Fold this protein.
Amino acid sequence: MLTVFLQFLFSGLTIGAVYALVGIGFNIIYNSTSIINLAQGEFVVIGGLLMWFFSESLKLPFFAAVLCTLISSGLVGLLIERLTIKPLKNPDLLLMIMITISVSIVLRGVLMFLFGKEPYVYPPFTEGEPINIYGAIIQQQTLWVISITLFCIILLFLFFKRTITGKAMLACAVNPTAAKLAGVNVSKMVMLSFILSAIVGAIGGMTITPISLMEYDKGPMLSVKGFCAAIMGGLGSNRGAVIGGFIIGILESMTAGYVHSGLKDAVALVILLLILFFKPSGIFITKSMSQLRKF
Amino acid sequence: MYGVINLLSIKGVFKNFGGLAALQNVNLNVRQGEIKALIGPNGAGKTTLLNIISGIHRLDKGEILFKDEKINNLPPSKIANKGISRTFQHVELFGNMTVLENIMVGFYARNKTSFFMDGFKFSFITDSEKKIYKKSREFLEYVKLGHKINEIALNLPIGEQRILEIARALATEPGLILLDEPAAGLNIRETRELGEIIKRIREELGITILLVEHDMELVMNISDSVAVLNFGEIIADGTPMEVQKNRDVIVAYLGEEEEVQPGYNVNT
Amino acid sequence: MKKEDFMVFIVFFIFVGLLPLFIESNYALTIGIFSGINALVAIGLCILMGYAGQVSLGQAGFYGIGAYVSSILSVYYGFPVILGILSAMIVSAIAAVVLAVPALRLKGHYLAVATLGFGEIIYVILNEWGPGGPSGFGDIPHFNIAGYSIQTTKESFYFIWIIVAIVMLYSINLTKSNTGRILRAMHDSDTACEAIGINVPLLKIKVFILSALYASLAGSLYSHYVTFISPSSFSLFYSILILMMVIVGGSKNLWGAVAGAIVITVLPELLRKFQELDILVYGFILTLTLMFFRKGLVPIISEKIKNVRGYKFAKH
Amino acid sequence: MKKAGAVFVLIVLGLASVFLFLQNAEAKEPYKIGAVFAVTGPASFLGEPEKNTALMLQEQINKAGGINGHPLEIIIEDTKSDETQAVLSAKKLLENDKVLAIIGPSTTGESMALVPIMNNAKTPLISCAAGAPITMPVKERYWIFKTPQYDTSAVEAIYGYMKKQGISKVGIITISTGFGDAGRKALHDMAPKYGITITADEKYGPKDSDMTTQLTKIKASGARAVINWSVGPGQVIVTKNWSALKMGIPLYQSHGWGSKKNIELAGKAAEGVIAPLGRLVVWDKLPDKHPQKALLKKYTQDYEAKYKGEPGTFGGHAYDSIMMIVEALKKVGPDKKKIRDYIETKIKKWPGTGGIFNMSPEDHCGLDKTAFEMVVVKNGDWEILK
């Protein structure tokens, strides 16, 4: 019994870690612009596919491939912000979200054109037998995904709490005018948040591809799940996104295990709706915090 | 003095916000037809009290009677329908609608139409629309906004926005209007005009007014009675003259040993 | 409703009504049929979002309920089609209440996710328990009334667009009336609405119901036209598509919803020649349209027309 | 300026599309056939090889002088794996292009959506989807044929093999799409006939990233074998999870497994996976005298030369459909009714990629379980099981 339960749990953690990383990506952009970037899932796909390209197709050594992937994903983020977000002064938020959707369509088109429709995979970061805990197994790559996720949150936490740039980015969303008056270069911060968010997405893509494969149209599903994770935890809270991601992942896995695998997505969503019903701004965001923000 | 009937009675009201006592045993009466001012330092609980009367916050203990009917903890719209209308400290207009439309919405409370049936009224302009339109124009003339009916509310200067908000509150044909700092952000001339309008509302329309205000000149000029709220408690309640001389009030506002000069705006 | 609104309405629908006289191709008319069906859903969302300010990513859920309930009733229980459609609308209205009551407390992104969750739950239910599961089911009867079955493309075109016209007339009337004004007021300030005696929660529930009724009707019409349905037509992507229509057309204007529905339905057909690259071209056109027609197509075009007119007047 | 630029780009794109839209008007009396494939969208794993096959065949046939001198024109429309788009595609082909017949669509749902349209237009359709309701009841599917084997045939092949191996308890795991669902139904329907009990019935979404939970549940249910019914990345992930879990029971895949790409993606994990595959995938392992061998060899080699990849079972469906119509055109000319009649009555003992077809007024598919070979993955290659 324990073995089975543990196995379900590990599976949930594997699934949840991905959602968590996407959720964090949402938060980074949300925290500096209030925009929900629905092309976030595409950033993950870009990370996975570029990593394949650099490591398998160009045969670069591992760390060089990682670096190249991160840099080029960051560039994609930069490009998107400069081409679509920057030209619009004082835009309507819903319009911006729609633009991110249409950007995601373009990205999918480009990815399909470059990589075709088949899935890609490359070997896990460390080769070797899965780890056995009380008879339940956990793949080494899963441990990589989880530890890299946690590492990302810690880094981001330090960045937003300890550095001037980080604090300035947070200020931009709450009140852009005030931030501008305080000498913050808002436009630069928004650009930075897109770059950062694209990189975080790419990190997610790089780490999960060996487990779940990657193909050009995996983005929308990842966006939706990551969005749910971010909302469950409370928009803007990275800790919330991670916990939200893991909760959804584990819920899906436990539902599949103990209830019925066909219903796993629905059960996770029902729980999300229930949470929103009792805490309308997510687990980690209080009502007064959410009232600071228009959205 | 105006009347002796209590239009609104607040009896022993308590309100806590997360352990912080915002109101403690507040008792207050507003008589039919008077202009009553509620003053007090920042954070004394004035706006909280207005929010409780108008149903935005629920009270923890006590009761509120309007026309001898208990209204505490009813939803805001029910309270408004019973005849209590209000304005807000931070003007809450329908910013993207025209001045006229703002007023027309205000008439809704007295001219309810059925949501789903509205789509079936296939005349170009219904009679009730015409009536509302006419009345709204009259109202705007009354508050001297007649020349701006087609402007977008957000584009009005703040003084006119405040007046528009009051006019919208009037459109619901209330028995009592709660005004939350109507003079905030207005210059002296605008404040005087506002004072005139408030007086006319009481005198010509016979509407009772409960006013939260920091501008002492305005308060002393137009109020029939003044209540002072400090740290969630009523510390004085009487005519403007009485209150100005009340020692507790002076202490609350200025600390020991000083006098309030009439017309001194505490907030500035 | 003002006279000029009515004139626009008359001119537009006369134009639509004349189309089949000039268009021989059933293919083009079929695009018209799907445009009309999408327009119904978009009009509902436009009232919900553009007027009342409530974002919904769950319209596909109501659309799906409409399609499935009326099809199930007519295929498995022998209901007359019209009765099936009405029953589906009742079910959708109930579902709308179930969604709206808890969602009342939510705003902005949170409301978007809650409605998205609702739509996805409906999708999973259709996938899991709908007849035929993910494979869907077919042989659904065409719309018929009093023994007359509407089958040919031309008949279907007229049938769908007459319904769109009725719904549009009702909606224009509604939005130009007292109710419409109150909805716009609610968009600007909930608090102020409450303060002048408007029961905001109840009003929100009613708007949700209205948009659900439109979507449900559209779903039923879809299923009785295509005669085959499977859950994949009612997924989140449809909700997003509808949202896109409303935004592209101009969310503050009902004609925007209709125009958006037509544009978004016709565009992929025009792009067929780009073969697989159509997704790329489609994405680019969409992005550019959103960026440069920010208020939506209809408001910007009507402004242009007004400007031209004003210019002419000034000259004379 | 910026605005003007964007408007300009929009106008150019618009004009370009309108131009292209109008352009495809006339050619010199070619035989036009339409093809509706799910070239993009979730079912693109089907539509892609089908499209490639159609383009290749068109080129080959025209190079060889066409059909009785008439060039063959195959007009391909993308359905984006969506029923509404399938309907529009078919209408376009019928109305604008006036095609003689339509090949496809790729999925059962899309095919079902076209049934009434084809019946109304009195034009034959040869579907590339497997679902039984596409051609049954035959009376109401007068104009509809299909080339893929029934799902039940693939299931029977698996169950038959299991019976020989003495396996009677299986756990099934299926993808929650039309493809997986059709397989799931067939697995349930055929089980009693082969004395097989299904101990666990699990599902997963098309974009799920981990199926360990479902497999763990199957293992705990006491199943003696796992059957996975899916296409796309899901089947590779299941294979990897199955191998990582060291489940100790064999994994069977559906006929969707038939692509070397899958072995490549799953790597070592794929060793020992068993699947019922059409002979197309294992043509090089067939005896020379097998009636399908020559045709399979040519098709596969041509395809690989042109597209640097395998056609897989699904490309073969398009091959069979097109070749049937081409043969009919050759014999009876451009007459829709005659084409239909020819296919219904004259396609007998007809070797295609999917098997030996025997169409009849009672059966518009014409294949049975003998169309499949049981194949195991060994040392990164296929091996036919006896």
Observations:
- The first strand of chain D starts at residue 31 and ends at 37.
- Residues 23-27 of chain D have pLDDT under 50 and may be disordered.
- The longest helix of chain D spans residues 2-23.
